[in-house]
Amino acid sequence: MCDPVENQDRLLREIQDLRAQIAELKQSQTRLQEAERQLESELAVKTALAELSRSLIASAPLDDICSIVLTHAKSLTGSPYGFVGYIESSTGYLISPTLTRDIWGQCTISNKTVVFEKFGGLWGWVLENQRPLLTNSPELDSRSTGTPHGHIPIRRFLSVPAMLGDSLVGQIAVANAERDYTEDDLEVVERLARLYALAVQREQDAQELLRAKEEAERSSQAKSEFLSRMSHELRTPLNSILGFAQLLETDPVEPLTPSQQEGVQHIQRGGHHLLDLINRVLDLSRIESGRLSVEIEPVPLIHVLDEAMDLITPLAEQYGVTLNLRPEQYRSVLVKADRTRLRQVFVNLASNAVQYNKPGGTVTITCENSTPHEIRINLCDTGPGIPPEQCESIFDPFTRLNGKETVVDGPGIGLTISKRLIELMGGVIGLESTPGQGSCFHVTLPIAHEHREAGDVLRKRIPTSERSVPADVRTILYFEDNPEQLALVASLLSRRPQVKLLSSPQAKLGIELARAHRPDMILLDLSLPDMNGFDLLKSLRAYPEIREIPVVALSADSQPEEIRRAREAGFQDYLTRPINVNEFLNYIDRMLIADPGDSKQPTPKSR
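Given the sequence above, the corresponding structure tokens read:
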């Protein structure tokens, strides 16, 4: 029989155990709910950070990233309002592109702005002190300065500075959550701020890079313009020096004595050396500034090599060096290149190979396939070779080959220009050298798989027509504002009594002279004070009575692209300074004086 008292005690103990179990279950459920809430919160934070990271990787604009950060900061903290801004590095101002987007209609402040030059109130305290701030009673906070009239009331406020190391780069702020902000909210916004700071840094780096690029382009442009102007200013007197030196050397009336001839030859050699230096420096400047272009087309390789060897042969004879050209089975190969620039490269390489060779040495050119789509041209000499420590810098500007041991003329930029030109043509240039045995430069170029016949361009002989002068006299009108250049051409043409020279230093005056005298030829300096040569050509073509008169450009600019531009514009021909006396007079003879039926007259050279 059960004891009633003992039974009652047992029931009470069981009830207490059940209550303890229920309490423990409730606590476990609470802990589980809290853990679930924390997991959901962490998931939301990581989702926000992932989206922000994707925007960074995609290089989204900074204003868009500000909007993404603000959206997540408000959502994660339960805030209806907020802003995200960045510090402008050049001014130190706070730029907040998101400030009024979502409260524009509710905010009645008359002077709405997204640029803040001065910092104030709670948000300003965060920026000035570079510390986070959390307050659920802003009106009681001593750091608050209140809000301006018309501003939305601030009931709760949380803000975090965006920092890169010790540098302030931006700010995130939220306000007016329905509940009090907590330290968890602060931590969430700080995590967003750390990633947001990277976005601001990326934008600042990009802006800095852009400014540096623009500054470099301005500097390059200024340098190019300076070199272009200086080259023109240097060429003008130099052309006169060379021209009058040729006149003295070839004067049939008062021939020079042998010693005077030698002195004039020294003048010409020095002048041509200076002219070559000017042209090369200008070439290098144009390449570096990206203003020099190449015209890629299928080019017969053997033709270019033959032309280069023809130009170098006199120099090789002078130095006692033998030239060997052995393209063998590659005689029909077409390469993708700019013909003029490729010839310039081979002339420069061959010139160096000759001048830095030994008496009785050889320069040998061979070809081989480096790949099925590329051909390699080797240019090897038997000179002293180049030390290994110089091979690395041989293509640097103003580097001279064995400069201390030789007296070879040149500014030391020929190889630099050659390398840049080959690279512009999609090729590669390199060097292999063994001291005491010689050097071998190699050029690799892409092979062209199309064949195009390149017919010779035949120039029209200048037609004769009825003029205001006798039929046996030919008239040339020369547009030139430089007295020395005009005097040089006048002196040259004085050797041709059949030619009458008219001149004008100005475009407008010259046009009237052309209409009045209808000359047989017009020589035109491309740099007149009142009109450039291309506009002047258009003006001349506007008058029917002089439209057919051949116009020949005479310029110190010998760049292929300028010559091509002039021909495309309609110039009959393009002559370059410094004027070669014999070539210039022969050109005038062919164009104006020679009997059209004389088949022995040479074809005008392409310049």
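Confidence is low (pLDDT under 50) at residues 403-407, 450-471, 595-607. Try to locate this feature in the token string yourself.
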